[in-house]
Every structure is written in C-alpha cells, then in structure tokens.
Amino acid sequence: MSAETQPTQVADKLVVTIDYTLTVEGEEVDSSREEGPLTYLHGYGNIISGLEKALVGLKVGDQKQVTVTPEDGYGEYDEEAVMEVPRDQFPAEIPLEPGIELHITDEDNETMHAIILEVGDDIVVLDTNHPLADQELNFDVTIVSLRTATKEELAHGHVHGEGGHHH
Predict the structure, then answer these.
(1) Which of 8, 60, 97, 152 is the most buried (most CB within 10 A)?
(2) Which segments of the chain are extended strands (E)?
(3) Bridge partners of 138?
(4) CB of 89 closer than 8 Å to CB of 122
(5) What domains, with CATH codes, occur in the chain?
C-alpha cells in the first residue's frame, strides 16, 4: 500500500466510519455506543445532509460538534402529516393511547412512523411527522476510519460488508 491510496480526509466517494452521539434539546436521542460506529458512503445522502456536509475535510481522530437545522435534518413540522384515522382500522391488540408510537404502512407500502396524538370514540389522530422534525440536532462526531469505496459500493451508492447496518 502506498501512502496516496489511503485517504486522509473525509470526502465524496469515501467510506467513513464515525462514532456519534445525537442530542436534541439536551437529551441524548441516539448514540453509536449502543450499536457500534456507523459506517456510511460519503456524498450519497446516506446520512442527513447537514451532518454529511459538516464532516467534509475532517481527518481520522478529529472530533466535531455539529448543529443541524431542521431543513438539513428531518425537515420542518408538517401540519398535513397529522391525520385522522377511523378507530376500527386499528387491530385490537394495539393499545390506543396518546403517546403510543406505531409503524404504519401507506398506500405505496412505505412504512411510516406515527405517534398517537389523541383518541376519540370513532377516530384516532395520528402524527406521521418524523419524531425529530422541526428539531435542531446536535451531533458530537468522531471520525473513526476512512477508506476508499469499492466500485460496487459506488455503483450501489451505499456501503457493503460488515458493520453496514441501515438506519
């Protein structure tokens, strides 16, 4: 291996492994401590854009605090994502109480995250906004390793092999 084949800075088309902790309003929401470092292909939108942009140029071992605005994160809160669903559409085993989180499938078989806002006699009000919509995301990131992506990874636009768990 000659020195130039080993990338030294985060850039497009590199496979980047990061350790991170995400805090929202001072509360820890997600951390790689639980699942191990996150490996992703840089420049392909595999992680939220605001975070991806902020990591460009960092070197292995660098640590950075990154604040991501809603528009670069999970989007603005969308009033239209709040919907009323007839109560009889829910399976009996689902506890219908405000605050319960569900995964529901829409017409296109896309799975959406939903949270119950209120429960009426006939209808249930669901909020399908991302739980982190409208939130400022505070990431504390350390670059663990960098490597050049394989041709296959570039063709597919995401990381293959070990440790590439999908979020």
Answers:
(1) 60
(2) 14-24, 27-31, 38-41, 63-68, 82-86, 101-105, 111-119, 123-127, 137-148
(3) 23, 67
(4) no
(5) 3-74+134-156 (3.10.50.40), 79-127 (2.40.10.330)
**What's the token pair of residue 49?**
């854009």
Tens of pLDDT along 53-96? 999 999 999 999 999 999 999 999 999 999 999 999 988 888 89
pTM to 2 decimals?
A: 0.77
Distance CA 163, CA 121 (A): 46
Judge contact between 96 and 125, C-beta under 8 A: no
Token digits of residue 5: 């084949």
